[in-house]
Write a structure and sequence with these properties.
The structure is a single chain. About 30% of the residues lie in helices and about 15% in strands. It contains 23 helices and 27 strands. The strands form 8 sheets. It has an 8-stranded mixed β-sheet with strand order 3-6-5-4-7-10-9-8. A 5-stranded antiparallel β-sheet has the order 13-23-24-14-27. Strands 16-21-17-20 form a 4-stranded antiparallel β-sheet. Helix 17 (about 515-525) runs parallel beside helix 22.
Amino acid sequence: MPTENDLFGAVDALLEQVAQDDLPGPAERKRLREAAGLSQEQVAKALKTRREAVGNWESGKTEPRPPKRAAYARLLEGLAARFPAPESQALPEPAVRETFTSAPAAPETFTSASAQAAPVPPASAAVQAPARAEGSTTRPSSASRRPGAKNTAKSPAKKATAAAAADPRFENGPLAVVDVDADGQVVAYCVGGLVLDVPAKSIPALVEWTLKEARLGQPKLSGPGKDADPLLVLTEAALERYGLPVALTQEERLAGRIPEGHKVIKQLVRADWKLTKRGFGPWARIYRPATGSERACVQLCIPSWHALDSRHWGEAGQFPPAELARVLGVYASRVMTPRGSTAVTGLELMTALHPPTRASQPDAEGRRHSEHNPGSLGKDPVDCAPCEAPDGHPLLKDLPRFHVRGPGEKLFEEAYDWARPLTDAECMHRHLVGIDVNMAFAAGANGLVVGLGAPTHVKRPVFDPKLPGSWLVDLSHVDLSRVKVGKEWVELDSALLPSPFTPKGERPEGPAWYATPTVAYAQELGYEVRPIEAWVRYDNGRYLDGWYNRLRDAYLATMADLGVHADLAPADFLAAMDGWRQRDPQLAIVVDAIKATVKGGLGKLRERPRGEGWRPGEPWRALSRPTWRPDIRAAVISRTRINFHRKIVKHAAFTGQYPVAILSDCVVYATDGASPLDFLPYRDGKPLPGGFKLGINPGLVKHEGTQTVLWGEEVRERFNAPELNLARYIKDGTVTDVDSGE
């Protein structure tokens, strides 16, 4: 039984410790260290802690804990004796413990060391992490730690964010990279350099902590939509800590998940958590059925399980936690929180911007009900037209087993893959110069009217260029040797041009199925069109406009951070594009991911079967989605290809120059100079109206690469392929083998 003296002795010891551990304010801590000429690294080494921790102590984001607190107090006391504060700073500074008075540095403000950051458009700035309320504190179990990120870039993004309504639910950003530090503490690296201590000892506890304390997530992108669920990225160290494999076995990789009997899945089941149908794989969703408007879902991303495809995310999966949080955070703030692969995210972005349902107006009893959201694709899938169905679709199950559908039965709108031999005159030029259309398919989606509902079959229709659909029409009579450019008829060498109506550039030989933009272009060239039949969609709209705007803004903001601005003169633009990736390789990865989101999202509109024991004629999983819309994909590709051909025709009519190869969004010309400025017509700095224009905006072009004409002829001779598509290799000139372009 302790005596009164024992109790008083213990209390005296506590009082003595508090007196010894009393610390000056954060600003004074920093002043003392700098006055002594010490770095944060030196202090951290002496106290056996991390440099980031010292930075957090000096910014007031966290406070040191025993036993380091006493040692830190002793250090500061000794420095204060040697470097007393000037009289102007003699007033005591109020101590700040785990308090935030401003938002964490938003990912929009990151810049490269070699390039001055450009202002970020407010559209992308509006999704930065909101500021904490004055005087608010983090919870003790999630004490935050901020690494000392040096970022002095000024941007209107901060002003725009401050003006926006703060959402305290997501004050720590959309996502966190969960890791284990050198002290064995589980920590979560958030955007803007914020680091949280994670108390969770298991995956179920980690999910609970994320939903109740971490304050992670992202506000909805549309009024009727839903907030984005928080995303946790688990490093290899975190996987080991929580009892998950660092890598999947070959069998698990093929299955896309760990076995249902894994101990972690059993832990989740016992805690009443559920997994989606895709199970616990590289992108796992852990949830409980929603009650009211309360969120109860957390998504996991596991890079070591190949969640981040290196084709789109480069080496991001191997980045240190803080760097990975930065890359994913910039992407999340400018596009959306990743929901899976870039393709999945591209498709989810469409739905997030146009949710299928909305709340109705109150009824007579004041109740609201779920109703169709106008302008969306709705919540139920619709059948495509038979001509739009890919091979193996249930609509085609009655076709003979080995039947091959021709252009009169199947809509085949794809990107260009066309090339031709050089003429004798072109062989006399010195160079082959490739130019590439920026975000070509995104530009093709901009302003495009697409179908929203099911198609209607029409016999002998009158073509309407404003009505989206698929048309069976004969365009073989369109002669490219004489076409309308604007309001004038021009003479061209049709042998040097690809047909605009087929991906291989071949002239059609009879009736074929085309999307509306392709048929409209035949009319634009001055030729009559008489469709035989059509599948049209009277319920239509500009469904992809918001999607395009979001991705365009993300692309332009990130390129501006890399020193490539939208208002640069042509020569300055080419100079800025030279070496842009090296200025900030992390942001360069974000650019790649944004572009992959465009192409992948459009590809998902016609997703094919992915194993699962599928047989031709049977439905596959993607068909159950309202966003399985091959007609929309075809319309975007059609318009993209037509936009490209229109520029090629204008260029040929004005300059007499013709392309020698086209691959998707890249075109190659033979010219004497090595730069696009040597053959693109500019007058007083202004480009040919309706032709190619250098610039970073979607739809404008950049320099893809330059090789010599001798290189091109040697490559074709080596592979005995006179029509080898040189656009595929123009970037760096490396040709390892002739491929099919798949």
